[in-house]
Amino acid sequence: MRDFAKVGRKIVAVGRNFANSGTRCRRPRSSFSNRRRRILRTAARWNCREGRMCTTRVRSRSPIPCHEVSEKKRLTFRNVHQAELGVVLGKRGTDIPEKQAMSYVAGYCLALDMTARDMQAEAIKAGLPWSMCKGFDTFTPVSAFVPRENVPDPCNVDLWLKVNGKFKQKGNTSDMYPRCSHDRDRPR
């Protein structure tokens, strides 16, 4: 599993998973639906080149190395970032019962969800699909693999993000909506 970024086939992301995302969108938390958007990203969006460090702190308080994000050609002018806890599945499964879901989890990683908001707004306004705004190469850099036993409570992991030395995000997986232990999304 340590090489999950080399052998993984897809990334399934869940949209609107942090309560504060609703605040940014000027939507009250009560308006969040249990039917959240799933966003499919190809594994080609992972950036697996070793580079600068982005870190998160897990129980041991040691940094987890992440990978450099490089943009050779500027295609977006309003790129937003969100640090998230990535769940790495250790075996295949479909329609997994919720009570068995954790037995499929091999570990975790820090994932950086990046979105070209300007492109997203244009696509939505035109009634077009907006998957491209999340589909650029390097738009989902991930950290090294963290075994499940090193994260005793995935529902209580501090996540923070600095961009150019400035805090852009401070939070905890307990801020996710609905709370991760009651998440109805099953790995597929």
UniProtKB/TrEMBL annotation:
GO terms for molecular function: acetylpyruvate hydrolase activity; metal ion binding. Gene3D superfamilies: Fumarylacetoacetase-like, C-terminal domain. Residues 59-177 form the Fumarylacetoacetase-like C-terminal domain. Pfam families: FAA_hydrolase. It comes from Olpidium bornovanus. Belongs to the FAH family. The keyword Cell cycle does not apply. GO terms for cellular component: mitochondrion. The keyword Ligase does not apply. This is Fumarylacetoacetase-like C-terminal domain-containing protein. Keywords: Metal-binding.
